[in-house]
Amino acid sequence: MKGLIFGPRGGLFFDSQLIMINRGKGQRPFQLALIDRGDAPIGCAITALILTLF
Asked: Which domain of life is it from (predicted)?
């Protein structure tokens, strides 16, 4: 269950900044960056949970 705790942190603190930088350079709407930023912690949590189960 540690993966469920540490996965979202990695997505929030590492992936979210990269997503915001890439969206800013692409001149895309801010709402799209928020949607993608919300997906990063969820995806990292699922990945980390699967990795800790095996």
From this structure: Bacteria
| pLDDT value of residue 34 | 76
Coil vs helix vs strand at 28: coil
Give the Cα separation of 35 and 54 in Å (integer): 30
Reduced to 3 states, what is the DSSP secondary structure of residue 41?
helix
pLDDT averaged over consecutive 10-residue blocks of the chain (54 residues)? 75 75 76 77 83 84
Return the domain boundaries, the chain: 6-53
Predicted TM-score (pTM) of this structure? 0.65
